[in-house]
C-alpha cells in the first residue's frame, strides 16, 4: 500500500511549509553546474504542488529564495531569477487550471523589476482561485519580517492609533506578511539538513518538523505523502498532556 492510501483525510495539515534544499548538491552529484539542479528542482515544485491539490492541502508555502541567498555568486543569483521569471510565466495557466492562487511573501521590492512585474501579474490572474494557496517566500527572512512588524506597531503606538496594551499575539500576527495564511502544521526540509534557516520563525512556534535525506530535485509527491503520514502519527498537544486530548 502506498503512502497516499495511508493518509487520513480527516486529519490533513491545512498548511505545509517546505524548505527546498539540495539542488546544488544534486547537480554536483550529476557532474553538472549548480544551475542545472535549480532547473530540475522546478519539476519537483510542480509535482509537489499538484500532489498537495490532489490530497486537499489548502496552503503550501515554498522557501524559494532567502535574503541570505543574495550572497551567492552573481551568476547563480541571476540564473535563479531567470528560472523564477520563466517558471511564473509558463505555469500561470496551470495554476488557473488547478484552481491554485499564487501568493508571495518577503522583501519583494528587492527583486529585479521584471520578476516583480511577472509575479504581480500572475498573482492578479490567479487571485480568484480557491482550492489551494501557493505562497513563494522570495527574498524572505523571518527576522526581517518580525522587525518590519515591530516597526509598524511602533509607528502605530507613536501615532496613538493603538496603545501598548493593545499589543498581543493576534495584533503582532496581523502585521506579518502571512496575515491571511494560517500557521503551518507541518514543515518539510529536504537534503538531510536539520535547521529552519530563518524561515517563518514566528509562525512555526508549534509546527511539526519533518526532515528527509532526499535532495529536492528527487523529492516527489510520494515523498510528500510519506511526510503527511508521518505527521499524522504524531500527537499534537500544544502544551497539554495526552489525557487532556481524549
Structure, explained:
There is one protein chain. This protein is α/β, with parallel strands linked by helices. It is 45% helix and 15% strand. It contains nine helices and six strands, in the order αβααβαβαβααββαα. A six-stranded parallel β-sheet has the order 3-4-2-1-5-6, sandwiched between helices. Helix 5 links the parallel strand 3 and strand 4. The chain is globular, with a radius of gyration of 19 Å. The model has no long low-confidence stretch (mean pLDDT 94).
Portion in beta strands: 5-15%
Overall radius of gyration = 19 Å
- Give the integer mean of the pLDDT values: 94
Largest sheet: 6 strands, parallel
Q: Provide a count of the helices.
A: 9
How would you summarize the topology of this molecule?
Blueprint: H1 3-6, E1 15-19, H2 23-29, H3 34-55, E2 59-66, H4 74-97, E3 100-105, H5 113-126, E4 132-140, H6 142-158, H7 169-174, E5 186-189, E6 208-211, H8 221-232, H9 242-245
Parallel strand pairs: 1-2, 1-5, 2-4, 3-4, 5-6
Summarize the structure.
The chain is globular.
Key attributes of the depicted protein:
15% strand, 9 helices, 246 residues, alpha/beta
Amino acid at each position: 500500500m502506498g503512502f497516499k492510501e495511508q493518509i487520513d483525510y480527516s486529519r490533513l495539515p491545512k498548511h505545509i511549509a517546505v524548505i527546498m534544499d539540495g539542488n546544488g548538491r544534486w547537480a554536483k552529484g550529476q557532474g553538472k553546474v549548480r544551475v542545472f539542479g535549480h532547473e530540475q528542482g522546478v519539476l519537483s515544485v510542480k509535482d509537489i504542488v499538484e500532489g498537495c491539490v490532489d490530497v486537499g492541502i489548502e496552503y503550501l508555502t515554498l522557501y524559494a529564495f532567502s535574503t541570505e541567498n543574495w550572497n551567492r555568486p552573481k551568476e547563480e543569483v541571476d540564473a535563479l531569477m531567470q528560472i523564477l521569471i520563466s517558471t511564473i510565466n509558463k505555469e500561470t495557466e496551470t495554476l488557473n487550471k488547478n484552481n491554485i492562487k499564487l501568493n508571495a511573501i518577503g522583501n519583494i521590492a528587492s527583486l529585479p523589476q521584471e520578476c516583480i512585474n511577472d509575479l504581480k501579474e500572475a498573482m492578479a490572474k490567479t487571485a480568484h482561485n480557491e482550492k489551494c494557496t501557493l505562497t513563494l517566500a522570495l527574498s524572505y527572512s523571518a527576522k526581517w519580517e518580525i522587525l518590519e512588524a515591530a516597526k509598524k506597531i511602533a509607528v502605530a503606538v507613536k501615532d496613538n492609533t493603538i496603545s501598548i496594551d493593545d499589543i498581543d499575539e493576534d495584533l503582532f500576527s496581523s502585521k506579518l506578511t502571512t496575515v491571511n495564511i494560517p500557521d503551518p502544521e507541518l514543515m518539510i526540509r529536504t537534503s538531510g539538513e536539520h535547521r529552519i534557516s530563518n524561515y517563518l520563525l514566528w509562525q512555526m512556534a508549534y509546527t511539526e518538523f519533518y526532515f528527509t535525506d532526499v535532495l529536492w530535485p528527487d523529492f516527489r509527491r510520494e515523498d510528500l505523502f510519506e511526510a503527511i503520514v508521518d505527521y499524522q502519527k504524531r500527537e499534537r498537544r500544544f502544551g497539554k498532556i495526552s489525557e487532556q486530548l481524549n
